[in-house]
Amino acid sequence: MTANELTSGDFTETNEPFSLFGTWLKDAEKSELNDPNAVALATVDPDGMPNVRMVLLKGFDERGFVFYTNFESRKGCELLATRKAAMCFHWKSLRRQVRLRGPVEIVSKEEADEYFRSRPRGSRIGAWASKQSRPLESRFALEKAVAEYTTRYAIGEIPRPEYWSGFRIVPTSIEFWHDRPFRLHDRIEFHRPAPEGGWMKVRMYP
Hints:
Elements: H1 9-12, H2 17-31, E1 38-44, E2 50-56, E3 59-61, E4 64-70, H3 74-82, E5 84-91, E6 96-106, H4 109-118, H5 121-129, H6 139-152, E7 164-169, E8 173-178, E9 186-191, E10 200-204
Antiparallel strand pairs: 1-2, 1-5, 3-4, 4-7, 5-6, 6-7, 6-8, 8-9, 9-10
Helix pairs in contact: 5-6
């Protein structure tokens, strides 16, 4: 059976969303040409206006969904202020979508250090050189900053900046959507009253 021949029984019978998400992500890794872990991240600014942008999911388990960023960036400041966020994965090749939302927590320093060390050296330099989300006077200014930090950390390990770390969304709701003929899609929502609670499942009208 191909992904586009998926029937409702293939995913509506489970009572646990994380293993289902893992299966869908593995399917996306086989069918999506670029960045199957790309996800739209929604936050809210101090005036209550929403912001959304694409980020890369860097890990997930039963604790939640993890991504990394500069805490001084726009999304970093908004997440630190509200500690709430939402995500939307859309895998066009599979005709599937997953939405989730919930409170946000900061990952441990050990988690952040481990992931930072795994990044390409150029990306680690970039974390130091980029004042993310703030005005940039010229491309040359950015290239100059990259050159300065490349020289500073020419030898040895590159430390993780204190302002660079990860967030974990601890979902209180996760919705799985799969395309069906005539727009009679399958939608299954898992929700719980609190992050430490048990999951309830409901089928939603398309």
